[in-house]
Write a sequence for this structure.
């Protein structure tokens, strides 16, 4: 099987998002069923990978029972509006056990959060040992929206790339596996999805008039993304750019990346801390 990580990872050097086609589908196997029915193919794959995720997740959760330093996983999702973060959260969590999972969405910081360092609220939201966490937006907003809207002076946001790298390296050293994904959509696809939100009464709640102001700054955001991806894609915590104009591709790609992360951890059920045979005899003799 192709290693999707190799195909999607941001390598050393500068990322040129303009070179990555948001409608492309890297790593999809070449076969009749994919070509003829890509959505059905993806749905079936996502469901079967979901079962694998749940199995890994149970072992990860179990491994934390006697080990406070047990491994933990964090999927970080970043995207422009309508990039598909919510849909991706559903696809990844669909087959998983809610007890071993946390999903946290980050909006504008509250007054309390603003009174602390930008990583304060992030640290508090990290998954515990044995857990799989998902961040819907993240500390990267502090070098994206904060930069584009000049929420802080340049010297402040410019220093954050190094702070983020140091923070992530420290977390990885203490057992966190980071899967950082940018869902890459085209402005044309965003327009379609925004229109869809406006035209569908069941989706209007997702629309925010401010989305159009953000859309008007597309170029500035792409530049801010390119810098964040280039500066913060490290050996211990690489960034992946997932072309996301096709939802079926996006879902398959992201669940596959999460599966690869769990496969690499290869969590194991802990060995019992008691004498199984003795306990068995005790139970049977007790009548
Ligand atoms: P949504 O994801 O559509 O619910 O929107 C969340 C909003 O919160 C987006 O407009 C983000 O730009 C904004 N947001 C998230 N994190 C930050 C941050 N650290 N500083 C300022 N705005 C943020
Ligand atoms: Mg929004």
């Amino acid at each position: 099987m192709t290693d999707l990580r190799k195909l999607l990872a941001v390598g050393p050097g500068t990322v040129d998002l303009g070179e990555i086609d948001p409608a492309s589908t890297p790593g999809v196997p070449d076969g009749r069923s994919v070509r003829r029915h890509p959505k059905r193919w993806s749905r079936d794959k996502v469901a079967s990978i979901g079962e694998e995720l749940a199995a890994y997740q149970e072992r990860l959760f179990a491994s934390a029972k006697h080990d406070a330093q047990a491994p933990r996983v964090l999927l970080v999702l970043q995207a422009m509006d309508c990039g598909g973060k919510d849909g991706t959260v559903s696809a990844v969590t669909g087959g998983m056990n809610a007890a071993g999972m946390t999903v946290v969405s980050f909006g504008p910081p509250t007054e309390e959060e603003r009174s602390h360092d930008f990583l304060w609220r992030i640290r508090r939201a990290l998954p515990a040992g044995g857990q799989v966490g998902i961040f819907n937006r993240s500390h990267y907003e502090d070098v994206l929206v904060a930069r584009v809207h000049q929420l802080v002076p340049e010297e402040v946001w410019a220093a954050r790339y190094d702070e983020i790298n140091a923070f992530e390296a420290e977390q990885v050293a203490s057992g966190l596996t980071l899967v950082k994904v940018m869902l890459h959509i085209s402005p044309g696809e965003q327009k379609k999805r925004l229109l869809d939100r406006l035209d569908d009464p069941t989706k209007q709640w997702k629309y925010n008039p401010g989305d159009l102001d953000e859309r008007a700054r597309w170029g500035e955001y792409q530049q801010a993304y390119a810098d964040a991806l280039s500066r913060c894609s490290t050996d211990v915590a690489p960034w992946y750019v997932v072309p996301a104009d096709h939802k079926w591709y996006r879902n398959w790609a992201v669940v596959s990346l999460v599966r690869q992360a769990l496969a690499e951890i290869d969590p194991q059920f802990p060995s019992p801390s008691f004498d199984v045979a003795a306990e068995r005899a005790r139970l049977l003799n007790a009548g």
About this structure: The pocket of magnesium ion (ligand 2) is lined by residues 81, 208, 211 (CB under 6 Å).
